[in-house]
Amino acid sequence: MSRKVIIIGAGAAGLMAACRAAERGLETILLEKNDRPGRKLRISGKGRCNITNNTDIDGLIQNIPGNGSFLYSSFYTFSNDDIMQFFRMEGLDLKVERGGRVFPVSDDARDVISVLVRRAEKSGAEIRYRSPVDSIEISDGAVKGVMLKSSEAIRCDSVVLATGGASYPGTGSTGDGYRMAQRLGHTVTPLKPSLVPLICNEKWVRDLQGLTLKNVSVTIYDRNRKKVYTDFGEMLFTHFGVSGPVILSASRHIMQYDYRDVFLSIDMKPALSDEALDNRILRDFEKYSRKQFKNSLDDLLPQKMIPVITKLSQIPADKPVNQITKAERRALAALLKGLTLEISGSRPISEAIVTAGGISTDEIEPATMGSRLIKGLFFAGEVIDVDGYTGGYNLTIAFSTGYVAGSNC
After folding, report:
1. Phi then psi dihedrals of residue 124, to 5 deg
2. Which residues have C-beta within 8 Å of that of residue 112, sequence separation ≥ 6?
3. Using 50, 70 and 90 to split pLDDT, how confident is the model at 169?
4. What angle do helix axes 393-408 and 80-89 make, rounded to 10 degrees?
5. How far apart are CA 350 and CA 360, in angstroms?
6. Helices (H), 220-370
7. What is the reported pLDDT for 258?
8. Do β-strands 364-365 and 354-356 pair in parallel, antiparallel, or remain unpaired?
9. Helix (H, G, I), strand (E, B) or coil at 402
10. Which CATH architecture has domain 4-192+354-408?
11. Rounded distance, CA 14 to CA 402, Å?
12. Whole-number percent of the chain with pLDDT over 70
């Protein structure tokens, strides 16, 4: 008689665990509370699904600030190369973009979900939707089964808990796994939003709502002007502050500051030195010498930004360009090289891409993803206290730990 495993959660980690457990010949039941699989996977990478990153193992670890070293064993067992090979073998063509980001050629996350579901079912896994789990049942320190919220009891030999985190609760990530694990005696470290939009004190950001800045450099400083983080890429202004790829990555570095009392400096012209930018502005001023200052910045800035920069520069908007002093011009250049905002908080965990915190890695065997407290209990994905930056690292965690849990359950 074959051993039976129940996997809770049909996200990236749970689906991969089901693929692996079923192909080992285990009687595999995947329980999902939603009416379809991969709800969060479906919206990842803006619907394109950044499945992994084409770097080496050390590169992966360096981009996982939340307990990255815990994942060495998982990554060596089922690496990013193995993840790419898995999907290619199933007929999904992949491409590598800037920063090593790996996407399906179709740019459609649904294709990734289809591959995982097809592989799991082909391997013999049963996927049951609309089947929320209430609790994991144990006896004498070992897993005996699960109890569904419908009061149905299913006996099994092992359980893989892959319920996700607490971010994007609309996708089903509502923290169920944390509560189940805590009832069994596991420690859940404090949950915080990671890769999350930031709130700014400055009121003028509202005037820039919807404006995207590309190819900018951002730097985070603490109150003592110590540099905390710097990055280059794309950002977005919102009605509450800032978001976009470089901001989300920056947010993970200021978690220890509770997302407050730090400063964001934006270099809008990182390709130009101070002197080169001053010369560029001088050329524009010569070109528009007969215009007012507010009408001289069209070649330099997005239209939406001109009123804000005009006001912040303290140069009178109606001042003739040919009357602007050298000191004023250089002050304008300094503003463009260091537009500063004070960060006063983050958006809630429900709006974060991933959850920082979770089931303590001290209580999980890294080589198997098995619980050190309960025999037959395994963990995979975001429910564990591990988290990475944007760029495919969090899905790499999910697929890798899912594979390892499915290999050992």
Report:
1. 110, 5
2. 38, 41, 49, 51, 87, 92, 104
3. low
4. 80
5. 21
6. 245-253, 274-287, 306-313, 326-337
7. 87
8. unpaired
9. helix
10. 3-Layer(bba) Sandwich (3.50)
11. 6
12. 98
8 Å CB contact between 103 and 49: yes
Chain CA centroid to CA 51, Å: 12
Pick the CATH number of 197-346 from 3.40.50.200, 1.10.8.100, 3.40.50.450, 2.40.100.10: 1.10.8.100
Q: At what angle do helices 12-23 and 109-122 cross, to 10 degrees?
A: 30
What's the pLDDT band for 2 if we cut at 50, 70, 90?
confident
Task: Return the pLDDT at 173.
Answer: 66
Residue reference for tokens 């594979």: 403
- Which of 323, 215, 202, 345 has the alpha carbon at shortest distance from 269? 215
User: In this structure, what token pair is assigned to residue 119?
Assistant: 């592989």
- CA–CA distance, 167 with 254 (Å, rounded to integer): 18
Q: Where are the domains of the chain?
A: 4-192+354-408, 197-346
d(CA 249, CA 257): 15
- Cα–Cα dist 148/116, whole Å: 24
For 253-285, the pLDDT digits (tens) are 898 888 888 999 999 999 999 999 999 999 999
